[in-house]
Specification:
- There is one protein chain.
- The protein has 267 residues and is α+β, with helices and mostly antiparallel strands.
- It has one domain.
- The chain has six helices and eleven strands.
- Strands 2, 3, 6, 7, 8 and 11 form a six-stranded mixed β-sheet that branches. Strands 1-4-5 form a three-stranded antiparallel β-sheet, with no helix packed on it. A two-stranded antiparallel ribbon has the order 9-10.
- Strand 9 and strand 10 form a beta hairpin.
- Helix 1 crosses helix 5.
- The longest helix is centred in the first third of the chain and has 15 residues.
- The radius of gyration is 23 Å and the shape is elongated.
- The N and C termini lie close together (9 Å).
């Protein structure tokens, strides 16, 4: 929807068998992967970030908002025919609240984290939330929610490979010459002194055995600092993809540069 909400249209009888559903949000930052790798050395140099820390920086690629049914309300017998549509009753609507943007401040994220993140309505525009009594009478379920994230990152070999490309063209690593040569937009380092702070909220963010810490990057980052692994951690699983192909046509430079580590993270 225009405001970023996601709407599901269902008949009350049909929702009875739902146990879990996932809404996926794909970040526009995912398109910045190649832009980042061509300028990473300049950013790291400018911020004085040690080489052994480079693989901790990543780009938010996707968020999965997972809803699990925590309470299924049995539909009262007298409402069964109504919910099934035999009397001409219409559908109901499940609205998923808009998720904040990565660049939004803590106040926005805290407000969203403390909200229920969904509501039922009999109005297709969601102008009025359905009362709990009505939910009970229609047998509509209640949900718990959790977030999982996917983010690409680069290991040391990727940064070493792009460093070779810089040297091949006699470019200074601390400049934007390589990015300019291939026509990429130039990234600007912004201050983040007040952008990140540790805070606990009601959002459940899960991890798997392959998880690693999320790190507040200089240009890209998550909204939570890890303080409590039970509440605030990102999970990941590994896959490979090509990061930089034909960086310059005349030289036909083709390299496998990027490794992606994804957490279990359409509108």
């Amino acid at each position: 929807m225009e405001d970023g909400s996601v709407r599901f249209t269902v008949m009350p009888m049909d929702i009875q068998c739902v146990e879990e559903m996932t809404v996926q949000y794909f970040s526009s930052l995912a398109d910045m992967k190649i832009v980042w790798i061509t300028q990473a050395h300049r950013v790291f140099t400018q911020l004085g970030i040690d080489k052994d820390e480079w693989n901790k920086y990543s780009i938010l690629g996707r968020l999965d908002l997972i809803f699990k049914c925590k309470r299924q309300h049995p539909m009262p017998h007298e409402n069964t025919s109504i919910a099934s549509g035999s009397s001409g009753a219409g559908p109901v609507y499940l609205f998923i609240q808009p998720i904040p943007q990565p660049s939004d401040n803590n106040k926005v994220w805290r407000s969203w984290a403390e909200s229920t993140r969904y509501f039922w309505s009999s109005d297709s525009f969601g102008r009025k939330e359905m009362s709990e009594d009505m939910q009970l009478s229609l047998g509509l379920p209640s949900f718990t929610s959790k977030i999982q994230a996917a983010y690409p990152y680069w290991d040391q070999s990727a940064y070493e490979a792009i460093e070779m490309v810089h040297h091949y063209h006699h470019f200074d690593l601390s400049t934007t010459d390589l990015a300019s040569m291939v026509g990429h937009p130039i990234l600007e380092v912004v201050g983040d002194d007040d952008q990140f702070e540790t805070w606990k909220d009601s959002t459940e963010v899960t991890s798997t055995s392959d998880s690693r810490e999320s790190v507040d990057g200089p240009t890209f980052g998550t909204c939570w600092d890890e303080e409590d692994n039970n509440n605030q951690s990102w999970s990941s699983e590994e896959e490979d993809s090509s990061m930089l192909e034909d960086i310059e046509e005349e030289n036909e430079v083709e390299m496998e540069l990027m490794h992606i580590k994804e957490s279990d993270t359409e509108r």
